[in-house]
Specification:
The protein is of the alpha/beta class. The chain is built from four helices and 39 strands. The radius of gyration is 28 Å and the shape is flat.
Length: about 350
């Protein structure tokens, strides 16, 4: 990237508010990390101090902003965050474009249903018999696609993804490295002093346009299916147990664990390190704050829950405020007890 601010303003439909149109930028970074030559962006008043201290050469700011930092060129745009995203998309790193082809070291069993001229299979990948691979699918290096599994058109498996037998992946699904789809659910019965494994005979179904981050595990169902709905986005290192159903267009952030047979509605947001107990439901449009623990059903509705056990956010905030007052209340009680003791002691 090496572009004059005049070109940048034209690209973004912005207006240069301070600085010279001839100034050039050669990279991009956050306000805090930017150095000379970098472009950054400012969109939230909470970061005014960072804007004032930035070392960036140029900053994208809201069109109506008028508190400019010294010696920094400012370009006014309607939405600095989206404009910055456009710059990154135009000049930043891009993954290699899809190219069909089968690496010589890939192993494709007989009976695989795919047009091999329209898919990409990288080094050391294994596709077992009966698997179906849609056109435009990419199977990364070291991936395993199990017997009778289905990979939809346009889906992408990054290196070392595992799709176990009979699992179904929709179209345009993205699975990042080390995702495991269809490992056995964690099911045991305690009999005669031993844990007896319960057979996990179901599948995992992942609908279209789902993205799953690195290291996430989705267990196959004991029977029927573990099901992730269309458009849901799941972060790294998430555990989804057997027979879980997750609705459409949910956001599930890193470190979350959802126990078996839980049901998550549509458009649910689960912040980092949430836990959901087995056989409970979280209604559509619910937001769970970080480290929330869901132990009973939560109804559908645009509401936020926090804490363990999860409760409406204002109730949890009141509870936390009460806890924070305990040291002061304890000191007051001790003082009152001391006064009471003094008042009951006989005069010497």
């Amino acid at each position: 990237m090496d572009i004059a601010l005049s070109e940048l303003a034209e690209l973004l439909g912005g207006q240069l508010l301070t600085g010279s149109l001839d100034t050039r930028v050669t990279g991009f970074a956050s306000l805090k990390e930017a150095r000379a030559g970098d472009l950054s962006f400012f969109y939230d008043a909470r970061y005014r101090e960072r804007l004032a201290e930035t070392q960036a050469t140029a900053v994208l700011v809201p069109a109506g902003w008028d508190n400019y930092p010294d010696k920094v060129a400012c370009i006014g745009v309607e939405d600095p965050s989206r404009a910055f995203e456009k710059v990154v998309d135009t000049y930043g790193f891009h993954a290699a474009a899809f190219e069909p082809g089968i690496h010589p070291s890939a192993v494709i069993a007989e009976g695989v249903k795919a047009d091999l001229s329209k898919i990409s299979v990288a080094a050391c990948a294994v596709i077992d018999s009966g698997a179906q691979i849609g056109d435009g699918a990419e199977i990364g290096a070291g991936c395993y696609v199990g017997r009778d599994a289905i990979i939809g058109a346009g889906s992408k498996l990054f290196p070392n993804v595992t799709i176990q037998e009979a699992c179904e992946i929709g179209e345009r699904v993205i699975l990042h490295s080390s995702v495991v789809i269809g490992a056995d659910g964690f099911g045991y019965e305690f009999e005669k002093g031993r844990h007896r494994k319960v057979r996990q005979a179901g599948i995992v179904q992942i609908d279209n346009d789902v993205e799953i981050g690195a290291g996430t595990m989705v267990d196959r169902a004991r029977f029927g299916r573990t099901w992730i709905g269309e458009g849901t986005k799941i972060d790294n290192l998430v555990q989804i147990g057997h027979n879980v159903v997750i609705g459409k267009h949910c956001i599930i952030v890193s470190g979350t664990a959802i126990a078996g047979s839980a049901i998550i509605g549509d458009y649910v947001v689960m912040a980092a390190q949430c836990g959901v107990a087995g056989h409970v439901s979280v209604g559509s449009f619910v937001t769970l704050g970080g480290r929330s623990g869901v132990t009973k059903d939560i109804p559908t509705g645009k509401a936020t829950y926090m804490g363990f056990p999860a409760m409406p956010v204002m109730d949890e905030r009141r509870r936390l405020a009460s806890i924070n007052r305990l040291p002061h209340l304890s000191a007051r009680v001790k003082a009152l007890e001391s006064d009471q003791t003094d008042s009951t002691e006989p005069n010497g």
